[in-house]
Specification:
Distance between the termini: 91 Å
CATH topology of the largest domain: Receptor-associated Protein
CATH superfamily of the largest domain: Type II secretion system (T2SS), domain F
Structural class: mainly alpha
Largest sheet: 3 strands, antiparallel
Number of domains: 3
Mean pLDDT: 81
Number of strands: 3
Number of helices: 18
Shape: elongated
Order of helices and strands: EEHEHHHHHHHHHHHHHHHHH
Strand order of the largest sheet: 2-1-3
Low-confidence stretches: 47-54
CATH architecture of the largest domain: Up-down Bundle
Strand content: 5-15%
């Protein structure tokens, strides 16, 4: 038995929190619903956090493959345990292979697909299990899996666009840094030796450049230790912060407030939130729980906390748009779209429109970043190299005086 912490609302609108020992979060939800509660969230107590858990989670590319294959299998009416076992044999990625094998074994034991997915919340996002459960209740599992497959494809495409926007500037910066390092290690020491033999008084920029070169060449071990230690220390600090909810929320707050990058991160979060909330509602998942699942799928701890408050307000009878207006995170445009969707009975369509709107904004900013970043990085690298060249050749103008003895 595993212990779970639950957050629910009774028939009178009173919030109830507590813990329960059960075999799965799904069984906790079922027991609470049998008692007349509306369940907002069920989370495993003392669930493993940190690097070990992160390393087991499937990537979005792997989740896209999983959702696509599950959709195809349910449409074809093939026996799921045998078909998934065949997929596991053909899988080349160890993490995906393990997930498929575990999923097949659970189905062979008699678990339903949603129960099997829920047992794997360390590897598969919870929304998979809830979407499948909603499809089973509506007797339309292939239909909801089709929605899920389209959603994961959108997320993969979004991530690929962001990666492509960053790839070229980062590659240019790394290449320029290697050129600068090569000049410091190979070229500057040769000039420093020549200048030392001439005995001329060197200009300040040249002295600075030679000093940096000496530091890199003669104390390379210390420099490597300092740089490597700083990187390792940052990784350890990040992992430790990720182990606590407060730490994750602080890291997320920092991401949201980074210059320029914070705007892009917020748009990315809102795209995923709107798309996930839409697909959950279309699948028949209750709105309060859909809000928390969508916030979890967005990857933002700040939004996760906000969504908990919004979910509680919705569960107590407040409209979604009014509950969202209590937080500045969503913005007036999203609140207006949600309000319009609620008034017209087309909330899913409004969320789709909002997700597409934020995706377009993100794409425009990505293109703007790519257009602006490349020249800026090249200008920065060119400025550094120009400084180095000028610093090396500046003493040549005084070498004639040194050689003539004046």
């Amino acid at each position: 038995m595993t212990q779970y912490h639950y957050h629910a609302v009774d028939e009178h609108g009173e919030t109830t929190v507590g813990t329960m020992e059960e075999q799965s979060a799904h069984r906790v939800t079922m027991k609470l619903q049998e008692r007349g509660f509306t369940v907002n969230s069920v989370t495993e107590v003392n669930k493993e956090q940190g690097l070990a858990r992160l390393s087991n989670r499937l990537t979005w590319e792997e989740l896209d493959f999983l959702s696509h294959e599950l959709c195809a299998l349910t449409k074809s009416n093939l026996p799921l345990p045998e078909a998934i076992r065949a997929l596991a044999r053909d899988a080349h990625k160890p993490r995906l292979k393990k997930v498929l094998e575990t999923l097949g074994k659970s189905l062979e034991k008699g678990d339903s697909l949603d129960e099997a997915l829920e047992r794997m919340q360390g590897e598969v996002p919870p929304l998979f299990a809830h979407i499948v459960r909603a499809g089973e209740q509506a007797n339309n599992v292939p239909g909801v899996l089709q929605l899920l497959s389209g959603y994961t494809r959108q997320i993969v495409t979004l991530r690929q666009n962001v990666f492509l926007a960053l790839a070229y500037p980062v590659a240019s910066l790394l290449a320029g840094s290697l050129v600068i390092l090569l000049i410091l290690v190979k070229v500057v020491p040769v000039f420093a030796e020549i200048f030392g033999e001439m005995g001329a008084e060197l200009p300040a920029p040249t002295k600075t450049l030679i000093g940096i070169s000496h530091l890199v060449t003669r104390h390379s071990g210390m420099v490597t230790m300092v740089v490597g230690g700083s990187i390792i220390g940052a990784i350890i600090a990040y992992a430790l912060l990720r182990r606590s909810e407060d730490g994750r929320r602080w890291l997320d707050w920092v991401r949201l407030h980074l210059p320029f990058a914070g705007v892009m991160y917020r748009l990315n979060v809102l795209v995923r939130f709107c798309q996930t909330l839409r697909i959950l509602l279309m699948s028949g998942v209750p709105l309060p729980y859909s809000l928390e699942l969508a916030a979890a799928a967005s990857g933002s701890s700040v939004l996760n906390q906000i969504a908990g408050d919004v979910s509680a307000q919705v569960a107590s009878g407040e409209s979604l748009s009014k509950a969202m207006e209590t937080s500045s995170f969503f913005g007036r445009d999203l609140c207006w779209l949600v309000s319009s969707g609620e008034a017209n009975g087309m909330l899913e369509d409004s969320l789709e429109h909002a997700g597409e709107k934020y995706a377009r904004e993100l794409d425009v900013k990505n293109r703007g970043w790519l257009t602006l970043a490349n020249p800026l990085f090249m200008l920065l690298i060119g400025f550094v190299i120009a400084y180095m060249v000028i610093s090396l050749y500046l003493p040549i103008f005084t070498l004639g005086d040194a050689i003539s003895g004046s």
